[in-house]
Every structure is written in C-alpha cells, then in structure tokens.
Amino acid sequence: MTRKTDRGRAARNTGYFISLLILALLAGLPIAVWMDVSTLSQSSVKRQAEDMSSLITSIRSYYASNVVGRILAAHAAGSDIATVVTHDYANIPGAIPIPATLSLELGDVIRQQQANITYRFLSDLPFKRRAPHPLDAFETNALAALRADPKQTPTKINRSGFTNTFRLVTPVIMAEACVACHNAHPESPKTDWKVGDVRGIQEVIIKQPFAHTVFAFKYLLLYFLFMAGLGIGFIVFQQRQTALIQGVNRELESANEFLASISMKISRYLSPQVYKSIFSGQRDVVVQTERKRLTIFFSDIKDFTATTERLQPEALTQMLNEYLTEMSAIALKHGGTLDKFIGDAVLVFFGDPETNGAVEDAKACLRMAVDMQRRLGELKEKWRLDGTEEPFMVRMGINSGYCNVGNFGSSDRMDYTIIGAEANLAARLQSIAEGGKIVISYETYALVKDIVDATPLPPITMKGIHRQVVPYAVNGLLGADQNLRVLSEHFAGLDLHLDVAQLDPDERARVRAALAEAMAAIDAQAPSAS
Fold it and tell me: Which chain regions cross the lipid bilayer (predicted)?
C-alpha cells in the first residue's frame, strides 16, 4: 500500500512539474520576442544615428568646400565681391554662416522636425562671444578619446522604460579652410590649429520607443496567443485527466485491497500449490482432470470418537485445530498438496501440480509422515502438561499409483482433488496401521526402500483392486550409511523418535542411560511368573 501511495505521489509531482515547465516555456516566448524586438530596435536606432551623423558631416563638408571655401578663395584672389563668412551672419546683410554655425542651426532644424532626434555640435573651445557648450561625462570622455584617436566612434545606449536612447559621437576635424579661418579669426580661442585636429564633436541622439515595434509582429503575437490558449487548455485538460486518473487509481487501490483480502481468505481454503497455479494463470478453473502417478498420504486419529467423549468440546476443538495446523505446515514444508480435511482425517498427495519424479515424491511423502509422527510426540507431551491424559494417536497410510487428479464437480461448484482405487488403498492402509505407526504399500516401498527400514505385513485384499496388496510397517528411516536408523514409535504409553545420526557422543550416552532406565522400569512392572 505504501509503495502504491509513493508511486501515486511521484506521478502527481511529475504532472505538476510538466505543467510548470509548459507554463515557463509559454512565459519565456514573449520574453524572447521582447528581447529580439529590443535588439532590433537598438540596431535600428544605431544605423539611423550613423546615417544621420554621416549625412550632416557630408553636408558640412560640402558646405565648407563648395560654398565657404570658394568664397574665401575668391576673396584671396582679389575679387571685389563682398561676401562675409561669419558665425554672426544673421546680423550682417549678405553674410553666410561658417560651417560650425551651419551645423548648429541644422541641429535646431532637425530637432524641430524630428522630436525623437537631437543633433548637437559641441566643442570645449567655442568662440569668445559664444555661450559655452555644456558637455556631460559621456561627451567629455568621447572628445578626449577622439583627440587621442579620431578613428573611433564612441556610442552609448540607454533603456528607460520602453524607450531606447542611442547616442553616437563623431569627431569634427579641422580641414584646411577651417584652419585658416580659425587661426585668423579674432574671437578664436586657439590660433595654432592644424589640419586634422579635432576641434569638437557632433553627436546624434535618437530616442525610439520600441513597444510599438512589437505590434509589427502581429501574426507572431496571434500565433503566440493561439498557442498560449492551446497550452493552457492542454494543462487544464491534463489536470482534469490527472484528477480522473487519481480517482480511478484510488478506486483500483481500494478494489485491489478488497481482492487481496478476498484472495487471502480464499487461499485458506485451497492448497498453496493450487492457489498459486490458479492466481498465476497456470491452471484454469474448469472441470478438467488428468491421470497422473501420485503418492497418496492418508491419516486419521485412532479412536477419535472415544476421545471426543472424554474431552470437553472446547479442549477438543483447540487440540484438533492445533494438530491440523501443525500437520498442514509439515505437509507444505515437504512440498505436499493438502487435498482436504475429512473430520479428523488428513489427505495429502505428491506429484501434482508440481512433481520431482515418482521416486522423490514418494521419499518426500515418507519423510513428511515421519516428521508428522515426531511432531505429534512433541504435541502429546504438551497436551499432557495441559491436562489431557490420553492425547491423539494417529495412524498413517501411504500408497503410490495412478489416480485421476483435477477439478471435479460442476461449473458452479468444483473441488480440486483425486479419485481412484489407489487413493482408497491409502485410506485402507491407514486403517490397518497401529496407533502412532506408518504403513506403506509395496509400490511405495519399492520407491523408498533405500531410505526406510520396514517390515512386511500379511497381504490384504481390497474391493476394486484385483491383486493382493502387501503392506509394510515402517520401523524407521535409514541414515546415509545404511546402518543408522530413525526410529519412530508412538502409541499409548510410549512416544519415541530416535534419529541416531543427529546424536553427538554426549547425547548418545544420555539416550543410552534413558533407554536403560526405561527398560528397568518396564522389567519392574512385568508380571511375575506363577
């Protein structure tokens, strides 16, 4: 039960983990799209800033070379055309701005036309009558870096909320016309400019909200929403299925527990071998028999009717149940199939549903009978101590031969048992045995003669068997060296089970002394000769 519960808990945990994994994957998709869109936006504003800076640089270069340069060249050649080139061109009729002024005013125009684009033309060396240009840390560092290496292109990108801000700085390099103008201008803070010097920087700042870019992926978003709905639906369906399966599993566990309980109860009514073969599917529960060579054991309690009159019903019931329990355990230990209890009688057979061969089946049956008599001797001592003066005396019979074995009865009620004259012969051999003795047939004796010491009895005849049957009274089992014997004698006044092979030298001395004392007691009670 605990193992099933652990498996159910593990299955539920696995289901929860899969659900969380799916949710995480679904949640990760918009994050991935958002990151891609952000990267795309950053790349876009970077290209836009680079293009804008390049455009303004080209405009300023063109203006410096083809406008300002040409006018200054004409003045130098002595032309009397009065065209003034100054930063203060707005206050002088006919004047034109210098390139730096043009760049500043282009920045104002761009800023007015494009609210998200800012163009700044900055220098830490402005003309004397100009307001100083405020430079932040990035611009100051960029200017210093460009003066060290004008080939650099410092950039910076910031993200604030859903807006990317990209800043790109390029150098303002002094051309030949700019050097001549600046070095001669009275308001120039520096008069030793050289061609290629970095006078300042131009900066393009572009702010671009990238949230609206997401909607450019409308089909992807629709697909995502569809997949999200599908995934959530799948999770809900899985949870419902999991709950349903868990409910079914609980019902199955309950049903299995009930069936296990019923199965355990049924097993008490069947031989363990039969129970195992039925529940493992090896044997069908149908009316079917087959003919097999078996060794059949039959026993009953001698003078059981008289014993029942001497004992109280409660004591008799307790003794009988203890006796049958012990005999059943011994039969199972030796591999016998316990057929049934017939009142005080016990029917056991060897050879079906499992067999080790006719010889080994017969030997196992004989050893079982000897063990039963030994255990009965122990039980008798216990029963006598409990107050029973004359405990059970059991007679046993063993026969080997062919019987019909299988399921007998109807489709509604059947019994797994054996039928045949050989089974009846085992019962007849038991009936002629003395109390506490074992009688076997010649067929069984022929199979076990190498392990048994037995005495032949007068032949008997039996209805249904046309031959004379020669019974053998078992005196005991032989040891491995054929000289040692296992003696077993059980009758009124004597319970003896002697296995010489099991005795060590000290125990043999004690047994010899006990037997000598017993013989002396018997001799003392012998009737005197008249």
Answer: 16-37, 216-237
| pLDDT for the residue numbered 530 | 44
Which residue carries 């050879």 as its tokens?
351
Higher pLDDT, 443 or 74: 443
Percent of the chain with pLDDT strictly greater than 90: 22
- Domain hosting 195: range is 38-214
Task: Extract the tokens encoding 187.
Answer: 């308001």
Positive or negative, the CA dihedral 348, 352, 353, 354 is positive
Number of domains in the chain: 3
- Position 359 scores a pLDDT of 95
Among 190, 214, 238, identify where a domain stops: 214
Whether 353 maps to a domain, the answer reads yes
423 and 512 inside one domain: no
Give the CA distances from residue 238 to residues 9, 22, 181, 227, in Å, rounded to whole numbers and listed in that order.
Answer: 16, 12, 80, 16
Residue 227 in any domain: the answer is: no
Q: In this structure, are 77 and 191 located in the same domain? A: yes
Q: Are residues 471 and 494 in the same domain?
A: no
On the question of a cis peptide bond just before residue 272, with omega within 30 degrees of 0, the verdict is: no
For 252-288, give one letter per residue: b (16+ CB within 10 A) or e. Answer: eeeeeeeeeeeeeeeeeebbebbbebbeeeebeeeee
In a domain, 195, yes or no: yes
For residue 411, pLDDT over 80 is answered with: no
Residue 18 lies in a domain: no
Per-residue confidence (pLDDT) for residue 529, from 0 to 100: 47
For the residues 456-468, what does the mean pLDDT come to? Answer: 83
This prediction has a pTM of 0.50
Report the Cα 179 to chain-centroid distance in Å: 82
pLDDT at 39 over 90: no
Using CA atoms, how far residue 376 sits from 319, 325, 395, 437, 501, in Å, is 11, 12, 11, 12, 21
